[in-house]
Amino acid sequence: MPNINNPCCVIVGGGPGLGMNVARRFARGGFDIALVSRNSEKLSGLSETLISEGFTASGFTADAGIEEQLVLAFERVIKWNANIGVLIYNAAAMVADDVIDVTPRSMMENMAINLGGAICSVNQVLPSMREKGSGTVLITGGGLGIEPYPNWASLSVGKAALRSYSIALHKELTPEEIHVAVVAVCGIVEPGGLFEPDQIAEEYWKLHSETKSSWRRELIYLPQHADPFYNDLNGTYRSTSMPIRA
Prior knowledge:
Low-confidence stretches: none
Order of helices and strands: EHEHEHEHEHEHE
CATH superfamily: NAD(P)-binding Rossmann-like Domain
Helix content: 40-55%
Number of helices: 6
Largest sheet: 7 strands, parallel
Number of domains: 1
CATH topology: Rossmann fold
Mean pLDDT: 93
Strand content: 15-25%
Number of strands: 7
Radius of gyration: 17 Å
Structural class: alpha/beta
Shape: globular
Strand order of the largest sheet: 3-2-1-4-5-6-7
Distance between the termini: 41 Å
CATH class: Alpha Beta
Oligomer: single chain
């Protein structure tokens, strides 16, 4: 059971990759961890793993693209630990679709996860954060939100919209002592590579730990020697692309 004196970190899209590493980092920082994901079996295993490591955690099942499920999940989180200090939105519809062939229906279905779930999640935690006058909202963006690729149309559009939404929130909520930032991870997250999940998780913690005078609205995570055009393996579009700078 959670300690009512402990702050809670809610991670929507708390899967076995980056989400789990971020969960561990915030748990080490003193947070109880609420994982929200649509796969109840995996969710149970992840929360049990955190508990076995000595942390306080629980899983809450919801599809990030279905508003009603997400609202109910947050209601359960609040009953478990209402002291939500951090929200991390890490869900995305990882669909490869071509910009010529994408349909309005499929675009909007994917946007329900890529953008709608973030808006819904923020709406659930914002009233209490505003009342307390503190809080952190960290949103996982991506290189596709800055440099779109034709064969990832829905995800590119979704990440671009998510970036704009996050930066607008940053501008609106900074005066209320609520820090909002988007993290553009410009590569494939995998252990042992340039995009090591433990290192990225540490960047999330650094964003949360910043003093207000140094609050950033965006972190573009692009390590030295990483390829900013990682979605264009054949180099088809590089001559017309704007490089992403770290």
